[in-house]
Amino acid sequence: MKNTIRKAAITGLLLLPMTAIGASTKAGVTEKTFIDVYNEGGWCMHFIMLFSIATVWLIIDIWIRTNSKKMTPEADVLSAQQHFLAGDYMGAYASMKSAVSPFAQVVRAALGSVGYGKDITEEALLSEVDKINSTMQTRINYLSVIGVCTPMVGLLGTVAGMRGAFGELGASGIGDPAALSGHIGEVLIATASGLFVAIPAFMGFYFLRNKLQAAVHQLQDKAEMLFRHAPYDYLKDTDVGQEATYAAMPNWLAEPESDVQA
């Protein structure tokens, strides 16, 4: 996990466009370093850098989470199939409880309701699939938020910089037009940086959203296949999960002994 965050941070810094902006030089013009261009962008560059790192981290994290090896591991699928073929539903529940994949969560939720019939079991299965899909979709939506907010932060920095540039112009007059154009070029770095980060964020959002849908469909198909033609009549009222029960009978149904003797 730490290696992933470290790689995301490094790659996020590379996403910043100042490297490309600072690399373009002309004869007689001093080449600017990455730090120089970064500082010229103003205070908003700190936020844009954070958005850049978050974008890369989210793309890497969601890409890994939505892979079939993570969503429906072959080992978990084979373990569930073997227990189902042997009719060992309690063993299947224990096996899925020890696993950590989304597939195991879905199968475990369905097995916990298998004693209540086909409809309740299918409802529990689909409910767990929706929960997993919602959790992953929330992560993906953060990319959309970054794609919307980053250009606005860059624009805010540009407006603040332009205000300072024109304030200086009003105080000292037109003076040197080249200096004024230089100021304007500097403040536009913020806008360019915001757009540079927003574009991959939106691309990642749409791509990963489609990838998630494909992974969820595969997960649902694998889980539903296990319960096809399940012997629900023989499993009726069976507590496969054997989890602790906390809902006792209402205490007002049991009369105190003192009241009975009276």
In words, what does this structure look like?
- There is one protein chain.
- With about 260 residues, the chain is mainly alpha-helical.
- It has one domain.
- The protein is about 75% helix and about 0% strand.
- The protein has 11 helices and no strands.
- Helix 1 (about 1-15) crosses helix 4 and helix 8 (about 100-110) packs across helix 10 (about 175-225).
- The radius of gyration is 29 Å and the shape is elongated.
Query: How many strands appear in the DSSP assignment?
Result: 0
Kindly give the count of domains.
1
Q: What is the SS-derived class?
A: mainly alpha
Oligomer: single chain
Question: What is the CA-atom radius of gyration, in angstroms?
Answer: 29 Å
What's the tally of helices?
Answer: 11
